[in-house]
Amino acid sequence: MSKTNQRKRIIEYIKEFGSITTYDAFKELGCVCLPKRISELKDEGYLFDVKVETSKNKYGEPVNYNRYSLAKE
6-52: per-residue pLDDT in tens? Predict the structure, then answer.
């Protein structure tokens, strides 16, 4: 899959579901480097809101991750 297709799919995913995380991108879209694709989309003119969320891993340790959504203008 080309980077262009990944970027298009990321935007479509956010429009359908409201936001995306790295886990969502990997599991649903096969994209292993969401932050890079988000950076490329920003270069194309897209604006994002980023929310840092916390969850626990399988060992019960806290982990932080970003949730990206399209910025409302």
Answer: 999 999 999 999 999 999 999 999 999 999 999 999 999 999 999 99
Question: How many angstroms separate the Cα of 36 from the Cα of each of 6, 45, 50, 55, 60?
Answer: 11, 14, 14, 22, 28
Give whole-number Cα distances, 69 to 2, 13, 59, 61, 62, in Å.
22, 10, 28, 26, 22
Q: How many CB atoms lie within 10 A of CB 10?
A: 23
Cα separations in angstroms, 10 against 2, 27, 56, 61, 65: 12, 12, 25, 29, 17
- H or E, element range at 70: strand 62-70
